[in-house]
Amino acid sequence: MAAVGAHPVLYHHPAPAGDASSMSSYFSHGGSSTTSSSASSFTAALAPTTTALAEHFDISEFLFDDAAGAGVAGAPGVFADGAARPVVLPVPDAAGGGAIIGAAAGGAAAASEVPERPRTTRIAFRTRSEIEILDDGYKWRKYGKKSVKNSPNPRNYYRCSTEGCNVKKRVERDKDDPSYVVTTYEGMHNHVSPSTVYYASQDAASGRFFVAGTQPPGSLN
DNA sequence: CGGGTTTGACCAGCGC
DNA sequence: GCGCTGGTCAAACCCG
């Protein structure tokens, strides 16, 4: 395993005006924790708005490849080193997770092609990474490992360790290209990421600073 | 000592 | 009905 020690941090970025989903977030995994779980990375996270997700989900909005990553503004230091930059791509085929198994829940405008889907939100995507455990800021607890028929690589099962949160995720290496990690999230977190990093952005026009994040620190109930 | 990981066993769904 | 496969459980173990 690539035990590159770095702390998993999730950077939240102010959503561009007009971006209703407000889920443009940046994820960086500086490396993997030697012990798996505790932080898997990635953000894409179950978007808060499943409907939008199903219809307009564009992985490119919350992923970055080398080029994009380099161009990320407002997230200085996301890539401290060029070693572990995840490149997320839609999963090519469905079986274990079709191209972004778009969400389930309420949305699914394209559901006409899919007879029936589980009620839980499910998203799958590929991440180009040397490590399997990407940090999405949430704390995951591994509860199983299984070798699957279609892949020479074992599939790992994780569950959000936050009490009351039933989000699960499966992580496995792409059978066709081991340099990619296929991650499938199932469910939606009912809590804020414990490691969400808030930071201020300055409004160019007014010069005012405002805090960005999943929830403004001051407005938590 | 508490929390997380490992790993074999068990169970349910599905195809033949 | 049977066998296969994926998903989950749970006890043992490990680590901070």
Keywords:
221 residues, N-terminal domain of TfIIb, three-stranded mixed β-sheet, 2 helices, 26% strand, disordered N terminus, disordered C terminus, DNA-binding, nucleus, WRKY_plant, transcription cis-regulatory region binding
Overview of this protein structure:
The chain is built from 2 helices and 11 strands. The protein is mainly beta. The chain has a domain of 74 residues: N-terminal domain of TfIIb. It has a 6-stranded antiparallel sheet with strand order 3-4-8-7-6-5, with no helix packed on it. A 3-stranded mixed sheet has the order 2-1-9, with no helix packed on it. A hairpin with a 7-residue loop joins strand 6 and strand 7. The protein is globular. The chain starts with 8 loop residues before the first strand and ends in a 9-residue tail after the last strand. The protein binds a DNA duplex (16 and 16 nucleotides) through strand 5 and strand 6.
